[in-house]
Amino acid sequence: MVKHQPLQVYERQLCLSCITGIYGCRWKRYQRSHDDTTKWELLWSLILLFTFCLLLVWFYFWWEAHNDYNEFNWFLYNRSGEWSDGTVPILATTAAGFTYISFLMVLALCHIALGQQLNLHWLHKIGVTAALLTTIVGVISVNQAWRQEWDIIPISLQATGPFLHIGALAAVTALSWIVAGQVARSEKTMFQVVVLLLYLTVSLGLYVVPLYITSPCIMDPNSLKQRPYVIGHQGAPMLAPENTLWSFQRALQMNVTGFEADVTISVDGVPFLMHDRTLQRTTDVQKVFPDRHMNDASFFNWTDLQQLNAGHWFLKSDPFWTVHTMSPHEKNLISNQSVCSLEQLLKLASYHNTTVVFRLRRPPPEHPCYHSWINDTLEAVQQSGIPQSLVMWTPDEDRAVVKQLAPGLIQTSLEKRSPQSLELSGISALLLRYNQASTQEIRDFSQSNINLTLYTVNEPWLYSVLWCSGVSAVSSEAPQILKKVPYPIWLMRPDEYCLMWVSADLISFAIVIGIFFFQRYRVSGMHSYNPEQIMLSAAVRRSSRDISVMKEKLIFSEVGNGVGSAEELYGDNDYDYYTNQGISQ
């Protein structure tokens, strides 16, 4: 008796094997399935999507928070007592987690596009859970310790919003290929309706979202005000140790128009520059006065302060990763820096006709200058010989007395108040954090002739947004960076922006419609063929050198859908389907 064993020929699908293998460890053909995804796996798909969206926001937050990395590190220092760049591990884990979750999202979309059942491997489920929980913990921590920094997101969207809209539009347009394929292949009317409604809602939302995008940089260039003045916050702390004479001299080289400093009063009544409550971070006090290194800086006399080195810490800790760019001469100058007095700073500013604004910290109650701190500081200002019109006076205590003794000082407030209230108090300048004034408030202060200075502005995009808003001056730790911004990064007329987003919407809409029609035509054409016949015929038409085959012993008695038998199927293609011939004994 003769037995015929026909061959079924398969093409090796390396790409599909990699997709299903990496996502769900289903490397073999028999492990894959075109069945509907289970509810449990759908739940995990939603968790993956939520984790991706959360990580996307978290990644964007830290990307834009680059302006305030130094502020964040200082917060960490106040809590731990040790100075380190805490942003490095956060950025590394965020980048790694976002890359990993994005990769899984791409694999999941490939599964959907290919009609494969979603089945996330348990190791990936652990990874997704870890990424989700880590991000949630990070969000809660930032919300508790650095809540004001969340304002960076809406502020940054004024610079990035128009371009993020174009990117989101491109992503949704690309997704239409998958959505259209799912709708065309599905035989469930309810599923088609739900998917279409969801996709159309998201698409229409993106099409009209530019109506709600506001940016001060969408304006007539003719109404752009003059470039905001740049004030060196603690000098140029990225190029030299903060609050030292060399730092302020470096700031002058970067064309700053003013200095901002932090002032503390010594135990013998000498105002000096110091940002922290103690001397531990920015001096070698632990080496010179080991028993007093944790004492309040104000309890040192000026003679003791002059013995401290205020530059070695900068070379050692390299807080801004800039030391490697410095010459040996610069490093030598830095290593010889000492604590700077307010009088020394004022004399430097007077010589260069530069404005000075300083924050004065009141000493503790047991300090001998607790009651005389205003008079001691005012006396140092007068002894320096600086014109009063160059000094912005910020303390609110005894302001009326200060006005009588030094009427030429620029009275400046550190507290946000209405323009009318400031005018009634005789205050002509305001110093605020950049997130404390909206675009409209900036313009209101400008119209009321209130000189508004916003701190701390280090990034060109933020400087550009505030420039377009009409701010008069900014305080920066990076004057060397802002020096390279002679014009806003981008400026667009309203009619140009309108043309841009309307054109993008129309192009996207046309592409989406075309994809839906093409997918419908493509899928309807495939329904008219038997999948087995397509696979076997394709194998016959190709050369054996072009394909790798897998042999499975199959005995066909009858083949449905119009194909009578395997013998007839191969016979139509002039293909010898016999693998062996034998005569049984």
TrEMBL record:
Belongs to the glycerophosphoryl diester phosphodiesterase family. GO terms for molecular function: glycerophosphodiester phosphodiesterase activity. It comes from Xyrichtys novacula. Its main location: membrane. One of its GO terms (biological process) is lipid metabolic process. Residues 228-486 form the GP-PDE domain. It is found in: Membrane. The chain crosses the membrane at residues 42-63, 90-114, 126-143, 163-181, 193-213, 499-518. It is a multi-pass membrane protein. One of its GO terms (cellular component) is plasma membrane. The keyword Hydrolase applies. Keywords: Glycoprotein, Hydrolase, Membrane, Transmembrane, Transmembrane helix. InterPro entries: GP_PDE_dom (IPR030395), PLC-like_Pdiesterase_TIM-brl (IPR017946). This is Glycerophosphodiester phosphodiesterase domain-containing protein 5-like.
